Predict the 3D structure of the following.
Amino acid sequence: MDTKSKTKEVLSSLLKVKIDELKDDVSLINSIGVDSTEMVESVIALEKSFGVKLSPKEITKNSTINDIAENIQSKLAK
């Protein structure tokens, strides 16, 4: 499974949103209405799933699925 698909799977499960609703360019904050607590929970879930260290600021700044997956992929490449 690629990084973007796994990111969608993790976020779909955590946020109780259908994977189909998590379009690549969808904003978690503006389109789905993720609040600050859910953002922190998302960071923790993604860190556990991928084994990388993320900051809430990175996820908030990069709040589309594409941006988050690219951020994770860049950390995995190191």
Notes: The CA atoms of residues 12 and 19 lie 6 Å apart. The chain has one domain: 3-76.
